[in-house]
Amino acid sequence: MTASFGTRLDEVFVRSGRLCVGIDPHRFLLEAWGLPDTAAGAGAFGLAVVEAAAGRAGIVKPQVAFFERFGSAGYIALEGVLAAARDAGLLVIGDAKRGEIGTSMEGYAEAWLTPGSPLEVDALTVNPYLGFGSLQPALELAEQHGKGVFVLTATSNPEGRDVQLAEDRAGLTVAASMLDEIDHWNARHHPGATGSIGAVIGATLRLEEFGLTEVPPTTTLPILAPGFGHQGAAVADLGSIYGDLAPGVIVSESRSILAAGPSGIADAVERSVAAVRSARG
Ligand SMILES: O=c1ccn([C@@H]2O[C@H](COP(=O)(O)O)[C@@H](O)[C@H]2O)c(=O)[nH]1
């Protein structure tokens, strides 16, 4: 039987820690790394990050946007990076933020969450703002194949507040209602265990403001936490930022690690892994 994503995540946490190294081939980083701003450059960058992360960290998160800008050649480069990461035993979170309806959502889910697909990842970020129910095909396929899904809940960008802080008649914020939906799904599918569906909650936010501290999860909920490092949140504050949600937090860092360049990235990954470990005590 296939192990669930939650079980696989628990194992990664124990074996390799909670750091997730972002693979974000920004134009300025490619230049700083001495690589061309092309699909081949993005691919070489991604493979070098995978090599640095392998055996040091447990999780990587390629940002699909930085590959997609090169069209089909960028996707070929991305496929190579995904395959290398999975071969290296890293857990791969595809940051594609997909959101659609009905059979179109099914198409995205098949592309990213089907074993053997060229774009296969271990977990995918998805956008629930077409309604949480629109995610059903992705959630079901993920459960079927031991994959994970991270639902944008409260994002680290300031513009997200307009939507995510809106309240329903009962005074629950949109963000809190997403967290509630995720927790219900996990409680139904993985009672008492780490869920396979997680939330994206930015480390730059005050969770109380979004009402996220008022919905204590009934299972350990995976939290993909961007906003550390370059965006300003400090790993040492992980416990105070996330409170009850801290046990499920995956610390995502991209530019703060990638800025170390090709010769410094392995050390930068090691330093970040150690910082995350000591933040957890
Ligand atoms: O709320 C969100 C959701 C996703 N992201 C993504 O995470 C990385 C962050 O990069 P840094 O260089 O560590 O700031 C990037 O790929 C974002 O698209 C996010 O920042 N916030």
Automatic annotation (TrEMBL):
Catalytic activity of the protein: orotidine 5'-phosphate + H(+) = UMP + CO2
Orotidine 5'-phosphate decarboxylase domain span: 18-269
SUPFAM superfamilies for this protein: Ribulose-phoshate binding barrel
Pathway membership: Pyrimidine metabolism; UMP biosynthesis via de novo pathway; UMP from orotate: step 2/2
EC number: 4.1.1.23
Enzyme class, UniProt record, top EC level: lyase
Keyword Lyase: yes
Pfam families on file: OMPdecase
GO molecular function (one): orotidine-5'-phosphate decarboxylase activity
Gene Ontology biological process terms from the UniProt entry: 'de novo' pyrimidine nucleobase biosynthetic process; 'de novo' UMP biosynthetic process
Keywords: Decarboxylase, Lyase, Pyrimidine biosynthesis
Sequence similarity: Belongs to the OMP decarboxylase family. Type 2 subfamily.
Protein's recorded name: Orotidine-5'-phosphate decarboxylase
Organism: Plantibacter flavus
